[in-house]
Amino acid sequence: MSRNSTDAELQDLLRSDDKKALETIYIAYKEEFLNYAKKYGLDAYNATDIYQDAIIAMRHNFVNSKLILTSSSVKTYLFGIGKFKILKKLKEANTLLNVETKEEDYTEIRIEESTPSERSIILSKYLDSISESCRKVLELFYYRNLTVEEIVQVTEYKDGNTVRSHKSRCLKRLKSLFKKV
Amino acid sequence: MNKEEFIQDYIADRLSDEDKVRAEELLKTDVEFQELYESHLELTAAFQISNDKALKKHLQELDANTTEATDNGTKKSNFGMLKRIAIAAIFIIGAFFAINQFSANGDIFDSYFEVCPNTYLPITRGTSSPDATFEAFKSYESGNYLKAEKAFKDLLSSDDNPNIRFYYAMSLLNQEKSGLALKELNILTPNTNANFDYQLESFWYVALIQFQQDKLEDAVKNLQVIQRVHPNFKAEEIKSILEKL
Q1: CATH of segment(s) A7-92
Q2: CB pairs under 8 A between A and B
Q3: Residue B57 touches partner A, C-beta closer than 8 Å
Q4: What is the DSSP string of B135-176?
Q5: Which residues belong to CATH 1.10.10 in chain A?
Q6: What is the pLDDT of residue B215?
Q7: Confidence of residue A35 (pLDDT cuts 50, 70, 90)
Q8: Which tens digit of pLDDT belongs to each residue from B75-101?
Q9: What is the ipTM of this complex?
Q10: What is the SS3 assignment for B119?
Q11: Whether B12 contacts A66, CB under 8 Å
Q12: Which of A56, A123, A162 comes nearest B55 by C-beta?
């Protein structure tokens, strides 16, 4: 996140899964978030754990759902997810107290947290067993939901048909691994 | 558009209202469509699990490194300065050599050659491979080009697959056996069979080898073939080479 980046540019970087931008956001707001979490009685260890989970959830929403923030900044969104996760943790532990906030507070942003199926969990393990090029093309198609034409633009594939044939071979390979279970 | 791409558009909310209704109808009536849809969602979830896990680990390591750097204090900052100076020096020396190499004509091959990645066959890592083709590509991906060369040659003796021949040529080229690689690539450039995925790449590497051998006219002709057949393939590189000649 350069000083010259606007929030809109930052959002573009996050949508394109720019690891450096995400890392910079993580470092930039960490201390502030830990101080914010202190108000809820969380120690640094638990607050860091929640902050990391909030970063992960934010990244997923930008990359997979192509999130566009129009009425809030990236920071407000991140802290909103963080607040949701803090409150969830405290509710689960039955330790939620009334917290008085003198300064500006953040609106809680609810994150859908569905339990993945057994098949998805097994498949996720096999993703580490296929080649980098396979993982990449499958990730671009199934996780980032890029169209075949978009994949051609961001990779070295010469055309859509090459992407399609490589994706098809990779999927076949991944499924063959899965069937061996 | 195939069904998988239609499903992707549905999931990514890129369909028109009319197509959205059609997709929802197919989800109720077409078993294959339902299975592909479920499979797409499962893969998305699988990538989410895998990516989330990797990112969590990365952030934890980042924190650990930041703490370590803070603990090392001044010593670390001096090292950082030295490191920056060293990187700058390497960059300046590197740029000097790169500029001189090219301007002396030279070496277009060295400036533009990159190892062609395996985009043909997915390789399983960490498990025993079931057949010779996997073994050959495994050697190629791990950079053991001599082993890959032998394995691809064996495969070609029983099956004259042009895609395998291309990677055989690449294995040779990656060991700087340019002459032998050129011989194989020259077999491939006229191959217009739909099952052959690397015709353009073959022209590209033939041209690079010809530059290396100072056969400028032939090399330019081959680049022009690529421009004619597929203007987007290596467009920037080809434009840049032709402008500099």
Answers
A1: 1.10.1740.10
A2: 119
A3: no
A4: HHHHHHHTT-HHHHHHHHHHHHHH---HHHHHHHHHHHHTTT
A5: 118-179
A6: 85
A7: very high
A8: 444 545 555 545 555 554 554 444 444
A9: 0.90
A10: coil
A11: yes
A12: A56
